[in-house]
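Request: Not sure, any thoughts?
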Amino acid sequence: MKKLLLMLASIGLVLGILSACGGKETGKTNGDNAGGKDKSEEPVTIKLHTHGTEDGYAWKKTIEAFEKEHENIKVDVVQLSEKQDSSEALQKIDLAAASGEQMDVIMFSNPAAYAQRVALDMLEPLDELIERDGYEMKEEYKFSTKVGDHYYGLPGKSVSWYVLLNKDHLDAAGLEVPKSWTWEEFMDYAKKLTTNDRFGTYFHGPQNGAWINYMSLKLYSKETDASFIKVDGTSNIDDPMYKESLALRVKMEKEDKSAVPYATMISQQMNYRDIFFTQGTSMIVTGNWMTAEIGGSSRFPIDFNIAVAPMPQNEPNSDEAFQVVEGDVLGISANSKHKEAAYTFIRWFSTEGQIAQGLNIPAWKTVSDDQLVGLIDTILENAASPEKVDKESLVHSIQIAHSAVVGEPLPYDMEINQALSVEFEKLILDKQDLDTTVENSKKVVQEIIDKNK
């Protein structure tokens, strides 16, 4: 039965070969800061390349709201993945850049992918525009998009992490919805929820440098230096939480047999949405972008109850669930002929546009707690089956999330992620032991750092 359920869950994630593109200076077409009417004389159409689907981003409603305020700017949404697959979208972005296709606004699903394209001269610096509009990035947004000495993008949604729970499965196993818990408790839940018909949990990665948080769960749960690179730019692979993160994955898959095998996930090109909504697993660690989907949709109607728990922690902590907070980043193509119009859009989208969209948690710090709860209400009201969601646990899990202290995005973050993914795969496929994996990880990360000095 497990094999049958696993066969139902399939979507591939593939990272494309990157292709550089050079920047060109173009004349200004129009512009205004966030919130004001556009003052341009001639209408323009800008293209937005994005991994986001209509279900996940409500583009029709969002673009209508923008164009109502900025009548001379039309936005053509180029949807790059029918399944909101960010890796598939990155491959198409790279191909579009290499072929000289018109791109004005480019959306990235995470700062690492964004920083890597900055290094390829794909994006336009925004410093002068930010200074012109008179706001401070650190005061305005929840995470940094600074690469080197410059800003090349503005945050869209803010991604913190939580655990989606099949509440019917929890009830049947006599388990409560956790309000705070440790990784050891998470592992115990997964064992108790595993049956002949399903796995206790599913980890959607790492995959060729993507979804690397799934190989660093304990490291990402630290209060500071919660990444492969410390804030000071040195390697963080010596941190005991890196080794413990790898050990957690091995134990759950090999010993407890409570997690979907990595080899099955890769070979069957599985996807977390499919396996959770078809009840092939009882729990998934995932990002809060799923808030827009957990109440059910035409694609994934649900007939079971869903609860949400905060990210597990390394030590008991009922007040804060530390994690690496990231999110979408929107940049302007260096080759765009409509840079001012593109900036007008990304500034609007990163602020009041997030409220107009009404589907995601904004990275814009101006959003108050009351607005956040109201936004969650709106998201659930638009769901197919909002009564299936434990709203109290959802709100709690989002509000208790706290950003860990990490360094700014580096152009070689993706290179490190890919190298560590290779080492993880050797471990999980029994090609090398844990200690060898850690030692090899230290070596490859230091080599990448030295090479990029």
Q: What stands out?
A: Residues 434-451 form the longest helix (18 residues). The longest strand covers residues 44-50. Residues 238 and 442 are 7 Å apart (CA to CA).
